[in-house]
């Protein structure tokens, strides 16, 4: 009837309490990763603590590392038909700085689930009320990230960059014009590839639609062959 377990060696071990068993709790929306104790130096020599995928985990990108540590307040939910994101709190309550930039950086990921989380998270965050006022101040930091995405050699990464650019343009409108020239060189390069010609053209048309007539001159300064949709 005792709560003490007797080992064959004679050592007495008390079972862990319920408090020790359950350490998971909903993360706050502060985006601060949960505190984790530093590993002991002896852990390096302990076979139980050696990660067989250690070399792989050391290659994690900044986005993947942030996601793994719980620094991104949404998770992938596998559905029978399609995947979706589950937010740990209302997206409207999540600070755009730095999450929107972090999600944009994740667009360059090539591994699941980071590809889906970054793409869908970026899109859903821009759909919340007040997204325009929250996103515009972040443009100086978002544009270099999108530029790197559009320069990526992976076709799927480039496609996600195009989608994100259109989504951002729809939210910030003409405010994107001051930064647009930094992105057009990569768009022009892909425009010459047959497989991307149509999608890049549609993207440019969307940029014109959301950015106004001033956008046309900016586009044509880098892509003289562009035919504007406005007369």
From TrEMBL:
Going by the entry's taxonomy, the superkingdom of the source organism is recorded as Eukaryota
Please give the residue ranges the record annotates as the region Disordered.
1-43
Report the Pfam families cross-referenced here: ParcG
Instruction: Name the InterPro entries for this protein.
Output: ARM-like, ARM-type_fold, Parkin_co-regulated_protein
Which spans does this entry mark as compositional bias, Polar residues?
1-11
Quote the protein name from its UniProt record.
Answer: PACRL protein
């Amino acid at each position: 009837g005792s709560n003490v377990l007797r080992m064959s060696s004679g050592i007495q071990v008390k079972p862990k309490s319920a408090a020790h068993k359950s350490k998971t709790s909903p993360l706050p929306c502060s985006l601060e990763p949960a505190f984790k104790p530093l590993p002991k130096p002896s852990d390096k020599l302990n076979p139980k603590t050696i990660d067989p995928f250690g070399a792989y985990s050391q290659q994690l990108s900044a986005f993947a590392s942030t996601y793994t540590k719980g620094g991104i307040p949404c998770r992938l939910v596998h559905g029978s038909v399609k995947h979706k994101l589950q937010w740990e709190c209302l997206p409207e309550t999540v600070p755009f700085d730095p999450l929107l930039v972090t999600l944009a950086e994740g667009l360059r990921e090539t591994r699941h689930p980071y590809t889906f989380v970054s793409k869908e998270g970026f899109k859903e965050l821009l759909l919340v009320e007040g997204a325009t006022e929250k996103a515009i101040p972040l443009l100086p930091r978002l544009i270099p990230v999108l530029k790197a995405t559009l320069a990526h050699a992976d076709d799927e990464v480039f496609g996600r960059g195009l989608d994100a650019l259109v989504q951002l343009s729809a939210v910030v409108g003409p405010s994107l014009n001051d930064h647009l020239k930094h992105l057009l060189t990569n768009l022009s390069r892909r425009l010459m590839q047959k497989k991307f010609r149509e999608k890049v053209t549609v993207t440019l048309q969307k940029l014109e639609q959301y950015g106004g007539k001033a956008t046309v001159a900016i586009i044509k300064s880098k892509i003289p062959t562009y035919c504007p949709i406005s007369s």
